[in-house]
Design a protein that fits this description.
Elements lengths: L2 H20 L7 E5 L4 E6 L6 E8 L4 E3 L9 E2 L11 E2 L7 E8 L5 H10 L17 E8 L34 E3 L15
Antiparallel strand pairs: 1-2, 2-6, 3-4, 3-5, 3-7, 4-9, 7-8
């Protein structure tokens, strides 16, 4: 090889090395704050879209929508304040969860997001591009493993409601704690767990 070829090779190798080093992880859009062994809060960071939806997918395949409203649409989420102004109990028997927070620039229907998330539940990572949603949307994925025992956190929510056949017509109560999708696709109603 000539000197010229060596020089070109070194420049190309150096450029590739710099490109790999420059790829940093994107900044977190939200954080998960543990309040106990199985209780958490989700806190949006600055600079996110004003609306959000929050879902969890457990190791056992149970999908829960934790931000339910009468209209079954995304809610307003303020930076630095806990989502839904609530703490959430994660069922220990369902194992580790992945929490998905969908930030959007407009209010979006939650039912279609739940169904799409159910279809993508086996993927280790999802992005906003994996979903058919209107407007500008970004997704934050967080993980948490609940542990047995520990003190109970008062007023923590662990909810589930029946998944209606017609999501558009669903009119759950304003303070309904969440929606649960069973792994087999069958929905059932379960009462909220008592706060100790």
């Amino acid at each position: 090889m000539t000197r010229w070829m060596w020089a070109v090779t070194l420049v190309v190798m150096g450029g590739l090395g710099c490109q790999q080093e420059q790829k940093a992880a994107p900044p977190a859009r939200a954080e998960i704050r543990a309040l106990g062994n199985a209780t958490v809060e989700f806190i949006p960071k600055e600079g996110q879209h004003p609306y959000c939806l929050l879902y969890t997918v457990s190791e056992k395949g149970v999908i829960r929508q934790l931000t339910m409203t009468r209209e079954n649409r995304s809610i307003r989420c303020e930076p630095g304040k806990r989502i839904y102004n609530s703490s959430f109990r994660i069922p220990v028997e369902e194992g580790k969860i992945r929490a998905y927070i969908f930030f959007s620039d407009q209010r979006i229907q939650a039912g279609s997001v739940a169904q799409q998330l159910y279809d993508l539940r086996d993927r280790p990572r999802v992005t906003a591009m994996d979903f058919r949603l209107p407007g500008s949307v970004s997704v934050e994925q967080l993980e948490f493993t609940p542990q047995p025992g520990g003190p109970a956190v008062p007023d923590a929510v662990e909810g589930s409601t029946e998944l209606p056949d017609n999501t558009e017509a669903a009119q759950p109560a304003d303070e309904e704690p969440g929606m649960q999708l069973e792994p087999q696709g069958n929905a059932r109603t379960t009462p909220p767990a008592p706060a100790n």
